[in-house]
Design goal:
mainly alpha, three-stranded antiparallel sheet, elongated
Length: 127
């Protein structure tokens, strides 16, 4: 535990004031993301919002979309769609790797089986 948790992207290490300063936003912006359910910061023992690095990245993405003139709902939907697309691309890449590996295995076995069959025909005098 201890300092090692700071490497965890999901560890809520950043207080609201620090988060607002890092993102160059007003704390009200972060509160609005919380109220809309876009961000769900953990709470300290005293009830103060605490943000993880992953949440700060999400808030920065939302801020960029706000700066482009999108509404909160539109920005949240775009982020959701982008994340879904990233997940789908990762899954496709994983499946393509599996297909390539299975194809290599099949081709390797297939060649071995053909060679075995040819060797068998040769030994039986059937070539």
């Amino acid at each position: 535990m201890g300092v090692g948790r700071l490497d965890d992207e999901d560890y809520p290490a950043v207080a609201m004031g620090q988060a607002a300063e890092l993102l160059e936003v007003q704390p009200a912006f972060l509160r609005s993301l919380d109220a809309a359910g876009v961000l769900k910061p953990q709470r300290s023992g005293g009830g103060h919002r605490r943000y993880s690095r992953r949440q700060l990245v999400l808030a920065a993405r939302m801020r960029t979309l706000f700066d482009e003139g999108l509404t909160l709902d539109a920005a949240a939907r775009i982020v959701e769609l982008q994340d879904g697309l990233d997940t789908a691309r990762d899954r496709i890449a994983e499946l393509e790797r599996q297909v390539a590996r299975l194809t290599e295995q099949r081709n390797g076995r297939g060649q071995g089986a053909e060679e075995y069959a040819e060797d068998g025909r040769r030994s039986n005098g059937t070539s």
